[in-house]
Amino acid sequence: MMKGQKGITLVALVITIIVMLILAGVTISIVVNGGLFDNAATATTETREKAIDEQIQLCSGSVQTLYYVGKTETPVKSYTNAELATEFVKLFTAAKVDATATVGGSGNEHIVTVKNTTTNQTRTVSFSINTTGQPIVDLTDWTPVT
């Protein structure tokens, strides 16, 4: 060997590699066994559901607002249930959330079915007009996928 030459020894290099492998093994074990990926997937699904729920609430409020002028509760126009439901679907579709909305029903009640395109769960929003002519919007809980 040449004298005065500086550098790391083979022993130091092997020890460094061993320590790095141990740290990598522990980290991978924590990530895989700790459920990090499962937790992230659950959080993603819950976030999407909350975004859809929020959009349902916003669209419901918008549809009810269409029915009234200003602070008086005087109807602007006599909306039918079908028109309210159709307007809800238009507003909901424009929001571009991970869900679809379709109108169904007839007569005194129209139902919009909102389907989460990620989980395939559905939620219904029913539109009806009460005896005083005010719109009523009812929501159901998310139905589990069977």
Describe the structure.
Helix content is 48%, strand content 20%. α2 (36-67) packs across α3 (81-94). With 146 residues, it is α+β, with helices and mostly antiparallel strands. The longest helix is centred in the middle third of the chain and has 32 residues, at 36-67. Strands 1-2-3-4 form a 4-stranded antiparallel beta sheet, with helices on one face. It has helices at residues 10-33, 36-67, 81-94, and strands at 99-106, 109-116, 122-129, 135-139. The model has no long low-confidence stretch (mean pLDDT 77). The chain has 3 helices and 4 strands. It has one domain. β3 (122-129) and β4 form a beta hairpin.
Helix content: 40-55%
Shape: rod-shaped
Instruction: Give the biggest beta sheet.
Output: 4 strands, antiparallel
Structural class: alpha+beta
- Could you give the distance between the termini? 74 Å
List the uncertain runs. none
Return the average pLDDT rounded to an integer. 77
Question: Which series of helices and strands comes N to C?
Answer: HHHEEEE
| Quaternary class | single chain
Question: What Rg do the Cα atoms give?
Answer: 29 Å
| Strand arrangement in the largest pleated sheet | 1-2-3-4
Number of domains: 1
Instruction: Give the number of DSSP strands.
Output: 4
Treating each run of at least 4 consecutive H or I residues as one helix, how many helices? 3
- Measured by DSSP, the beta-strand proportion falls in 15-25%
Provide the descriptors you would attach to this structure in a database record:
alpha+beta, 4 strands, 146 residues
